[in-house]
Specification:
The structure is a single chain. With about 90 residues, the protein is α/β, with parallel strands linked by helices. The chain contains four helices and five strands, in the order H-E-E-E-H-E-H-E-H. The strands form two sheets. A three-stranded parallel beta sheet has the order 1-4-5, sandwiched between helices. A two-stranded antiparallel sheet has the order 2-3. The longest helix has 14 residues. It is globular, with a radius of gyration of 12 Å. The termini are far apart.
Length: about 90
């Protein structure tokens, strides 16, 4: 993610697999929060699902349907807030 920030491309939201090789998903989510970016986390890990719930993050449990991802991104983008969960 840090390399991407060095480009001129605009980032509207992040879809983040909570278990990311080489980097902790929670630290990436916190970094996105510092940048003010909406985040949708995805995971099948019970620990990560608990983390997302504790942090108020929107999380899609794997496996999920494309329509669920579209709704989650719509919620994240329309809220303008980091990790907004749908009510």
């Amino acid at each position: 993610m840090r390399d991407f920030q060095r480009t001129d491309d605009r980032v509207d939201a992040i879809v983040l697999d909570a278990v990311t090789p080489g980097e902790n998903g929670a630290s990436l989510a916190r970094h996105a929060k510092d940048l003010g970016l909406p985040v949708v986390m995805i995971s099948g890990s019970n620990d990560e699902i608990s983390f997302a719930a504790e942090q108020g993050l929107q999380l899609l449990r794997k496996p999920f349907q494309a329509e669920e991802l579209y709704r989650a991104l719509d919620t994240a983008l329309s809220s303008g807030e980091f990790g907004q969960r749908s009510a």
